[in-house]
Write a structure and sequence with these properties.
Quinone Oxidoreductase, Chain A, domain 1, six-stranded parallel sheet, Rossmann fold, seven-stranded mixed sheet, zinc, alpha/beta, single chain, ADH_Zn_CS, EC 1.1.1.1
Length: about 350
């Protein structure tokens, strides 16, 4: 398969508010795959809130002028000398957030590779998918379920996977009551998984369009972001990166309930009151990245249960506008960049 010598895309020129235009378009050589890597022609790349945190500097830069993007759907066009027989030219594959782990530390050896101290991440440590080509270690490339368009698959590769892990961390009991705070790309997928598993879902979010989407998906109730739900919750997930929502979410939990914070970045959490927020064995926990096992389990679920993916399409040339729209709350569901 012919591969051009150069490609276009976007880099984080200087992290800062979106109004300062931190992203810059570029032309550069197409990357060469390493010995254990695939070269992927990007078809679609999802626009994740983590990309916004990288662009605005909420996450400390790991690589100067990095290419953001870690929800990549593309086709294999070349590979390195140590890649086995598992991939062929034209195969559709996914590139997610988790790019590489050491495989030797005590976390990797116990199945918690998401906690590996030497983990590396697409679009943060290495260049990602806001470009026409990207590389990925073959061991971390994802097989994708049939029956979905490329633009539907892209949000599954981070928003879907992280939402799925957040559900696991929230320990939703069978038939339990789940509260979801914020209703964007990840939340609207996690809600569908929870509903398919028999949970009663209550959504706390801003924005009429997001609330309408929640109702269309079949949730039991919808209210404002800090409003109490109509019933005590067994579990809750905070998707919005807003620390002031932690106290009302904890207060909404029933005895023994768990609140999982799903974002990689959160504004400061106000002071908590022990008796009101944590007593009676309420649990507050974070969600850190994902394992490849999480990804496989979620993508298998998506193959068996057709998920409704609300994807707002932008061209690759509109990446800065897509991130600005995400920041300003103008994206309902997920946003994706169509690269080709």
């Amino acid at each position: 398969m012919d591969v051009p010598g150069t490609m276009t895309g976007w880099r984080v020129r200087r992290p800062g508010p979106m109004r300062s235009r931190p992203l810059a378009q570029f032309t550069m050589p197409v990357p060469d795959p390493g010995p254990d890597e695939l070269l992927v022609r990007v078809r679609v790349c999802g626009v994740c809130r983590t990309d916004l945190h990288v662009a605005e500097g909420d996450l400390q830069p790991h690589r100067p002028s990095v290419v953001p993007g870690h929800e990549v759907v593309g086709e294999v066009v070349a590979w390195g000398s140590r890649v086995g027989d598992g991939f062929g030219l034209g195969d559709r594959v996914g590139i997610g957030w988790l790019r590489r782990t050491c495989g030797r530390c005590r976390y990797c050896l116990r199945g918690a590779e998401n906690l590996c101290p030497d983990s590396r991440y697409t679009g943060w440590d290495v260049d990602g998918g806001y470009a026409q080509y990207a590389v990925v270690p073959a061991a971390f490339a994802h097989r994708l379920p049939d029956g979905y368009l490329d633009e539907e698959l892209a949000p599954l590769l981070c928003a879907g996977i992280i939402g799925f892990r957040a559900l696991q961390c929230a320990a939703v009991p069978d038939g339990g009551r789940l509260g979801i705070y914020g209703f964007g790309g990840s939340a609207h997928l996690a809600a569908q998984v929870a509903l398919a598993r028999g949970a009663e879902v209550h959504v706390m979010t801003r924005g009429d369009r997001a609330r309408r989407l929640a109702v269309e998906l079949g949730v039991a109730s919808v209210q404002g972001p800090s409003d109490p739900p109509p019933v005590p919750l067994d579990s809750a997930i905070l998707f919005a990166p807003v620390g002031t929502l932690v106290p009302p979410a904890l207060a909404a939990l029933d005895r023994g309930g768990t609140l999982a914070v799903a974002g990689i970045h959160l504004t400061d959490v106000p002071r908590l009151n022990y008796e009101r927020h944590l007593f009676q064995e309420r649990t507050l926990r974070s969600v850190t990245a994902n394992t490849r096992g999480d990804a496989r389990e979620f993508l298998d679920f998506a193959a068996q249960h057709r998920l409704l993916v609300t994807a707002n399409a932008y061209t690759l040339d509109e990446a800065d506008r897509a991130l600005t729209d995400l920041k300003e709350g103008r994206v309902v569901g997920a946003a994706v960049l169509i690269a080709g």
